[in-house]
Design a protein that fits this description.
The complex is a heterodimer of chains A (about 80) and B (about 525). Chain A has 4 helices and no strands. Helices cover about 55% and strands about 0% of the residues of chain A. The relative contact order of chain A is 0.19. The two termini of chain A are about 20 Å apart. Chain A has about 80 residues and is mostly helical. Chain A has one domain (about 1-75): ACP-like (Non-ribosomal Peptide Synthetase Peptidyl Carrier Protein, Chain A, Orthogonal Bundle). Chain B has helices at about 5-20, 25-40, 45-75, 85-130, 150-165, 175-185, 185-190, 195-205, 210-245, 250-280, 300-305, 310-325, 325-340, 340-345, 345-365, 370-385, 390-400, 405-425, 430-445, 460-480, 485-490, 495-515. Chain B folds into 3 domains: about 5-210, no CATH class; about 210-290 and about 460-530, no CATH class; about 295-425, no CATH class. Chain B is mainly α. Classes of the chains: A mainly alpha (about 80), B mainly alpha (about 525). At the A-B interface, helix 2 of A face helix 12, helix 13 and helix 15 of B.
Chain lengths: ~80, ~525
């Protein structure tokens, strides 16, 4: 989780990603951020997030994103 | 049959009556018949193309769904005996078979769209090249009519197919029901580009007559006619005067034309969508909103979240994301980071995808270099503003102006001017002329002429300007609202007499001030041509 928070803070240093939900719904992350995030996750966790998984519920919070990474690594 | 023609008004009124008279289980079939009749009246041969898209999409999606169901049954039956590797291999084999169907169907449909829409554009470019290299040979153009709404229904159908492939929605098992989704006439010619899982919730009924829906729908239709006939078609005269005689109207007139065209396009397109959503609402069907006060946008990204929303989200979900997270792009991201450093390297694939998507968005709008340059300029502005993000952040840390009214107004005006300037590419006949006319705004010092009677020579009288000003004031007043649709909900508690009076006034305004009548041909909606 710490590694993921580090990636997110690299995109928006001013956001407290441990506490913030609604990252997509509230417009904190835009499509540029999402793509950077997917590339970072591929780079660091070696997990490929397919386009079909790029939906708000998977990106709305750091926890949701962590769950997605774990689910895709198990697949 | 134009939305603004008497025959269309008669068509929908008759439909509304029959729709609520037939047994409710037949309502969707009646809509299918009406949609195909609407399309048939435009041109019988168009039916061939829309049927081909419908049947091919139905078959591919149906088969993709069947394969997924069979895979699930196999997994359930052999849950305990399959190893993890076997499950993984099974899933991969399934995806491969589904992908083949998906690609075949997309090639067929996008291929059809490309041939119909871009062949002559490609031929014109080849001819241009031949001429440039001194050849006298010129290729003959194809004599093909672009089927009405093909860009919209192809995108809508392919969106459905991709949703089935991704497992987001189940495949429709009745080809006629899918045919209605593809051809639903109110949205066939100018969108919105609906998502199957959203539209299907209400498209197939059954629907009891609900007075609230019917009256809201009729109000929305009237509102659309008001925008189209009173504003858009009136101001069109001045826009055409300016852009069709560029040698005469330069400098300040380009600025006027630019702002007038922005207003025309807004009133035309949002008016058309109001009519679409209104018709659907009378039928008890919910069509998604396509606009959210676009001229309150504070930057271009915000603007594209508010303007033609269904098209923007289509390109984002079905092109931008898949392209950006594809293996080649992820590899490019890695190598760019190695070679160019972390900060710049990670931007390379994102920017490349942005340009590709905006190129596609441009050419989707029309087969001309104007639209391609228009699309690419949008992409470039978005990239520049994204690259400047750290500067904005520092600026806002230093100066606490972000939420001040004056700063917000500045952002809104800046975004509107920027988007309007880029929209000039819709207006002038070619790219060099557009750049030249844009330049004259700064090089031709004729700003005084506007106040010396020249504004009255653009084809509009003083009364026209008054009507336009009043119309814009009404649109602005209705647009200052916190959530979509709340205007009429605010009207709801008023006594019925007041509400009816407001509707009659709107109707009278359309009848009195609408730009139509004997000898006047209500203009085609701008987005029909896309």
């Amino acid at each position: 989780m710490d590694e993921l928070i580090g990636i997110l803070e690299g995109l928006h240093p001013d956001v407290d990603f441990r506490q913030t939900a609604g990252l997509i719904d509230d417009g904190v992350l835009d499509s540029f951020d999402i793509i950077s995030l997917v590339a970072e996750i591929d780079n660091i966790f070696d997990v490929q997030i397919p386009a079909a998984e790029i939906v708000p519920e998977n990106f709305n919070s750091a926890q949701a994103l962590q769950d997605l990474i774990e689910r895709l690594s198990d697949d | 049959m134009l939305f603004t023609s008497y025959s269309f008004i008669a068509f929908i009124l008759v439909l509304f009556v029959i729709y609520y008279l037939v047994p409710r289980r037949f309502q969707w079939m009646l809509l299918l018949l009406a949609s195909y009749l609407f399309y048939f009246l435009a041109s019988p041969e168009y039916l061939i193309y829309i049927s081909l898209t419908t049947v091919s999409t139905f078959l591919a999606a149906f088969r993709i769904g069947r394969l997924a169901d069979a895979h699930q049954s196999h997994l359930a039956a052999h849950k305990s005996s399959l190893t993890r590797d076997e499950r993984k291999a099974g899933k991969e084999a399934l995806k491969q078979r589904q992908r083949r169907l998906l690609v075949a169907c997309m090639l067929l449909n996008f291929g059809l769209l490309a041939v119909m829409k871009y062949t002559n554009f490609a031929l014109a470019n080849v001819n241009g090249l031949l001429q440039a290299f001194g050849s006298e040979r010129q290729l003959a153009f194809l004599n093909i009519a672009l089927p009405m709404g093909i860009s919209f229904y192809t995108f809508q159908s392919m969106g459905y197919l991709l949703d089935v492939y991704r497992g987001k929605t189940s495949a429709q098992k009745n080809v006629f029901r899918l045919a209605l989704f593809v051809s639903f006439f109110p949205q066939l010619v100018q969108g919105p580009i609906s998502r199957y899982d959203e539209l299907a919730q209400t498209l197939y009924g059954p629907h009891k007559p609900d007075w609230t829906h019917i009256s809201y729908g009729l109000q929305r239709i009237l509102w659309g006619f008001f925008k189209k006939l009173v504003i858009a078609d009136r101001i069109l005269v001045a826009v055409n005067t300016i852009i069709r005689t560029p040698e005469e109207y330069q400098g300040v007139f380009v600025l006027v034309g630019m702002l007038f065209y922005t207003l025309q396009l807004y009133a035309d397109f949002t008016g058309g969508i109001d009519i679409t959503i209104g018709i659907a609402e009378v039928l008890g069907i919910r069509v998604q909103e396509n606009f959210n006060a676009p001229f309150l946008a504070r930057n271009i990204t915000d603007y594209w979240r508010r303007w033609h929303i269904s098209m923007g989200t289509w390109f984002r979900d079905y092109l931008f994301y898949p392209l950006s997270v594809s293996r080649p792009m992820l590899n490019l991201s890695r190598s760019a980071r190695r070679k160019l450093g972390e900060s710049l390297g990670k931007r390379v694939p994102v920017y490349l995808c942005t340009l590709i998507v905006w190129f596609a968005t441009g050419i989707w709008h029309g087969s001309s270099w104007n639209f391609i340059v228009w699309g690419l300029l949008n992409g470039v502005v978005i990239m520049v503003s994204q690259a400047c993000e750290p500067l904005y952040t520092r600026f806002h840390q230093r100066f606490q102006v972000k939420e001040r009214l004056a700063y917000r107004a500045f952002e809104i005006v800046r975004t509107t001017l920027l988007m309007s300037a880029i929209r000039l590419f819709d207006c002038y006949r070619d790219v060099p002329l557009t750049f030249r006319m844009f330049g004259t705004m700064f090089t031709t010092p004729n700003y005084g002429q506007l106040f010396h009677g020249q504004a009255m020579q653009l084809g509009l009288s003083g009364a026209d300007y008054l009507v336009l000003a009043a119309g814009v004031a009404i649109i602005v007043a209705s647009g200052i609202r916190r959530k979509p649709g709340s205007m009429r909900e605010r009207l709801e508690p008023l006594p019925a007499a007041w509400r009816y009076a407001a509707m009659y006034l709107l109707l009278i305004a359309i009848l009195l001030f609408g730009a139509y009548g004997v000898g006047y041909d209500a203009s085609q909606f701008i987005y029909n041509q896309f």
